[in-house]
């Protein structure tokens, strides 16, 4: 490990340190530092900042960036009004990790692509321009949507998938831009030509909270398909919120994990559903739209039919249609 | 004095006549509290005065030569040295007793240890290792892709009879190909060594399973006399084969410590463990079964393809149990070992059976389906009277009892036709598989000391790798000497103590246990003489000796401690009898109809392994086997990049051993048995038996649940759901 400075932020201004790397739970960053994938000269510990509250107002739920995954999953309001989030959190990592991992840190965890983690291997995300051995290598867990010729990594978070379905907005305190509220699609960028850039955040920006809008109508669920029952990243996951009234789908929000470099949401999938009577054929149409541009890389080809099956099962569960 | 026994003939059941009653019963491991409170030190936890820390440097190319540029790092903080001398390519194979390949400047796989970097602190050493400049010259003829091998070497295994003819004569046949991915032992404790020199004498704390062999391996690697090497491994955090042979950290630490004139500790990273330590090879297996109309086997064949590095004297004995488990006159085996530029293959958890029994027992399930015979009945019909190839008689062989009693306890009669039991989104099914594991007795020595105050001491260089050695050796001594086990101290893991069998091949308990038994037996004879009775009449209980018409506390018979050495050697019973542990595994699984995810609801193992020495630690061993069975069936697979041989998933986040939630209810039952041919304590190995066939029970249950036959392991969702409706 390279020597580094450690400072403890006592206010937001301390945390907005353009030369420092923010650390909260450290469940990902410490691994990255041990492997020298990241070698920050200074760690800015934000865990003493006042960002640990979950505050409810008439129109939203404001989740402090330091609320741990365990606390958030267990929060009464979250369990009652946003069960998709609670389920997603509990589907992630392990109990020990959830006790340490924070809301802000979870959003910014980095990919689990194995080539990213091995410094003897090329990786455009780790060393821009070095190449992507995953495309023609071991890519079973990697992405089929939103990839670029330079990177096919997936975003590993479960929590963020649920938040994407819930239209969450991330509150950011930026030394240059002031307070910002970004949707997850605004915050995360697709790999494109530079997979090392994963978000629009700049040095010194601090995530202070995540805001959830009013609880959505309808039923919610989170379904994660994985290789083992716990402590495994999603092969495919679906966060679904669907409301049915008078035999027709009136609202639908669907986000997907394990498929793409960021929590994946595609409004055209929801457009297929809204206003229609739920049916197996309709769900197939939605899956067609979701997966029309999906591209497998060999080992991960299976994710495309698996995403279809999982999406259809989630829609059937949420609408009460028997498959 | 030494009480020596060469196991040339069956022995009386002395342990059924002693009266203390502390053997076979459940007893918690005495060192348990030390372990759970962190007071049992493992190799990496020892510190020595003036100790420096070393970190292994791994090759970043697959094949070629290298030279390290020490000048590139000499100015870095804490730098003490970079050493490449005597570097071994990988861990030694089990029971070799000689050095593993030492490659000089040659690299044969990505991740090979090429140097050890030593600094004042671990963090400094790791930083230096990360930036050390290494000049590589790459060869362009590396071969890494197992599936791409076309010119497989021929097999020289002889046929028995004519399997082709049997296949054409048969009413029912199975001819299936199975594949298994490479496995890692995944012991919790990574390999570590602390080396200290005193002149020519080396003392090394290591994480090792077989100290007697390991001492010779360390000495041979360093080019020194084994008498000058002392190894210490009193606590070992799991081995599973990965610590049978000396690991590269031992040599790295010893070479660096010698050069620097101060103690050096080297701890392998988890990534290192996945590369520098032996892995189980990938296998491809062709299984053929030929049966008559009653399901009786006319012949069987098991041919396998696997890989290793050059000059590794070990091949996965895939067909080990197939030779003796079932009858059938016509038999064919084949073994083809390709040379690939990937980490060395070697012993991992039940070498042979762990993967060979998957294929054999899946094929038996296919045969049961085809012939319409219940899988248990099919197996019962094919139990031979004697070894089907050598004609040698079997020693105790309770396979039929394990199958039938296990079936009753499991509720096998509730099993339904494949694909017919469904609960909501889940298909439910049951599967069975036989278990078999060759039993081995190894030479082993131990000192047993009885003190006048009624305490005793057992000393041997045997290891406890989490198996329960401390518990059972203490129990055997206590039973033989008539003592509370709490009054027996067991000292292990030091090559200054009498040389044992070491831990491996499931032979530790019976081998080391027999040496303790013999040492204690010699003490009994002395006590009988002093009491003035025949040893047959001696009864020792709760510190009191009774015999003839005398009854005396031990203290009155002894004015000084009595120490006797026990020494067991395998003998003629090994030739006269074919010895193996047997059993049956049962599994009930649920398969998700949408995703193909498999959940193991419950498993039952009925195990017959001779005398069970401690029901608690034996049960724990079998649980381990059942869990590894779940792992081999469902989750475990090392992925090598086909272009570089690189272990892509080289940590425990991406190499999936089962988690608690993957493991349903586990039940273990023991079939009461004594194996007279095995050893004077009538016990056989249990650890690997618990794994043999366990995974096949799971995949057979998958078939019964949803009708999908698993041919390519592990059965991850992507291997199941495409075949579901």
TrEMBL record, chain A:
Q: Which SMART domains match?
A: CO_deh_flav_C
What Gene3D superfamilies does its record include? Answer: 3.30.465.10, CO dehydrogenase flavoprotein, C-terminal domain, Uridine Diphospho-n-acetylenolpyruvylglucosamine Reductase, domain 2
- Entry-linked Pfam families: CO_deh_flav_C, FAD_binding_5
Domain of life (superkingdom): Bacteria
Alphabetical list of InterPro entries matching this protein: CO_DH_flav_C, CO_DH_flav_C_dom_sf, Diverse_Substr_Oxidored, FAD-bd_PCMH, FAD-bd_PCMH-like_sf, FAD-bd_PCMH_sub1, FAD-bd_PCMH_sub2, Mopterin_DH_FAD-bd
Question: PROSITE patterns annotated for this entry?
Answer: FAD_PCMH (PS51387)
**Where in the numbering of this chain does the FAD-binding PCMH-type domain appear?**
1-217
The record's annotation in SUPFAM superfamilies points to: CO dehydrogenase flavoprotein C-terminal domain-like, FAD-binding/transporter-associated domain-like
Q: Does the keyword Transferase apply?
A: no
Q: Which GO terms describe its molecular function?
A: FAD binding; oxidoreductase activity
| Keywords attached to this entry | FAD, Flavoprotein
Protein's name in the database: Xanthine dehydrogenase YagS FAD-binding subunit
UniProtKB/TrEMBL annotation, chain B:
* Residue ranges occupied by any Aldehyde oxidase/xanthine dehydrogenase a/b hammerhead domain in the UniProt entry: 37-140
Q: Which SMART domains match?
A: Ald_Xan_dh_C
Q: Which Gene3D superfamilies match?
A: Aldehyde oxidase/xanthine dehydrogenase, a/b hammerhead, Aldehyde oxidase/xanthine dehydrogenase, molybdopterin binding domain
State the Gene Ontology terms under molecular function: iron ion binding; oxidoreductase activity
Stated name of the protein = Xanthine dehydrogenase YagR molybdenum-binding subunit
Q: Which organism is it from?
A: Palleronia salina
Q: What is the lineage of its organism?
A: Bacteria, Pseudomonadati, Pseudomonadota, Alphaproteobacteria, Rhodobacterales
